[in-house]
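**Backbone description:**
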Amino acid sequence: MYQTTYHRPKTIAEAVSLYSSLEEPAYLSGGHTLLPAMKGRLAAPANLIDLRASPELSGIEVRPDGVVIGAATPHAVVAASAEIKAAIPALAGLAGSIADVQVRHVGTIGGSVANNDPAADYPAAVLGLAGTVHTDRRSIPADEYFTDLYSTALEPGEIVVRIEFPVPESAGYAKFRNPASRYALAAAFVARHRDGSIRVAVTGAGSSGVFRWAEAESALQARFEPAAVEALLPDPGGLMSDMHASAEYRAHLVRAMTKRAVACMGGVDIS
C-alpha cells in the first residue's frame, strides 16, 4: 500500500467540498471494489472520502409502488428488512446472497452500484427492476446508468444518494458462485413488471459488465416458463473468459441461471 489520507464527512455537502478541494480524491462506501484495486496498485487515490457517516445516505423507504434504499445502507440491512421481503423478496434475497456475513455488514448498495464491478449482484437488480439511480445532481434510469466494465454515467465527484426500485409483479434471482470468492460467475435477475414487460439482467458474465439479455426477454414475453429459453445462448463474444470460466461456459451458465430465476420467481436460487 501507499500513503493515503482518510476523511469521514458528516454530510453530502461536506463530502462534495472535500472532493473539490483535495488532490486525487476518491469516494469510499464499503470499499470492496476500491480497496482491492488499491492493494493491487490499480488505483492510487491520495485522499479517501468515506461517505457512510452521512445520515442523508442511509435508510429504507417502502411505498406501494416502489422501494427506495439509501446508498450507504449495508447489504445486511437490506437482506433483513421485512418490508423489502414483502415488497420485492428477490431483492432482499439477492442482498443476503452477497459474499459472506462480514462483507454484508460493511458493503453498501451505493458502493456496489457506483463501481459497476462485473461480478457485483446489485447492478442486476437495478437493471432488471428498471430502477433509478438518484445522485446529488440528477436522476439516472438504469438503462442509461451502466456504461461499461467498472464504468457508469457518474461524472467526477458525483455521489449516488439513493436507488429507487419499482415494485414488480414478481421477480427472481439465480446465481452460480465461484466456490472460493463467492462472486458470481454468472447470475440472472428476471422481473415481470406490472405493465406486462419482462426484463432479464445478467451479471458476473458480461465483458462490459451487467447487461440485458434481449433474446431471453422476447422469448419469456411469449411464454413465461423456464423452457422458453432452452434453445437460447448469449453470444460468447460478449462474455468474459478467465481462469475461472471460459466465455462458452459462462454462456451456458447464463442460460441455466435465467431458467432458474424464472423457476424461483419470488425468491432466489443460489448455487
User: Anything to note?
Assistant: The domain at 5-50 is CATH 3.30.43.10 (Uridine Diphospho-n-acetylenolpyruvylglucosamine Reductase; domain 2).
